[in-house]
Design a protein that fits this description.
CATH architecture of the largest domain: 2-Layer Sandwich
CATH topology of the largest domain: GMP Synthetase, Chain A, domain 3
Radius of gyration: 18 Å
Strand content: 35-45%
Order of helices and strands: EEEEEEHEEHEE
Distance between the termini: 19 Å
Number of helices: 2
Shape: elongated
Number of domains: 2
């Protein structure tokens, strides 16, 4: 991953960092949460002077750096579950000799249209979508994109 700037501009993703100097028992100075979010443009509707922080978009340690941007399981969730009939999916990134390929196994009642996924994946990554049984909750732990050789 690229080193994070201290404060990304509006709309750019960055890690949420918390500093609380008012806590007497244990002040946190630059506590890195690992969560990724974005600054939202424009003023707060309540009239407050502080910048708005968008929703958490994933975890820093789960983002896979690609030439055209980053890929997360949350971004794939948004793309795959937006299509009708999807019950679950698994994702695997096959790292090859200069040619990476993302393989999605989708459990759905119909074939998935791979167009929106291919268009949204950064860096022109090759995407293969196949239909099969894919229970994303079968493995314990957090859902991740598997990285395979």
């Amino acid at each position: 991953m690229q080193p994070a700037r201290l404060r990304p501009g509006p709309g750019e993703p960055g890690e949420i960092v918390v500093t609380t100097l008012a806590a007497e028992a244990m002040p946190l100075v630059r506590y890195r949460t690992g969560d990724l979010s974005r600054w939202l443009p424009g003023p707060c509707p309540c009239g407050g002077p502080l910048a708005l922080l968008g929703p958490v978009q994933g975890r820093r340690d789960q983002a896979i750096a690609l030439p055209g941007g980053t890929l997360t399981i949350q971004s794939l969730d948004d793309l795959v579950y937006a299509q009708p009939g999807v019950r679950g999916f698994t994702a695997a990134l096959h790292r090859g000799d200069g040619a990476d390929r993302l393989v999605l196994t989708v459990d759905a009642d119909r074939d998935l249209d791979p167009g929106p996924v291919r268009a949204a994946v950064p860096g022109g990554l090759a995407v293969t979508v196949r239909r099969g049984e894919a229970n994303p909750f079968a493995r314990r732990g957090k859902r991740r994109i598997q990285i395979l050789p």
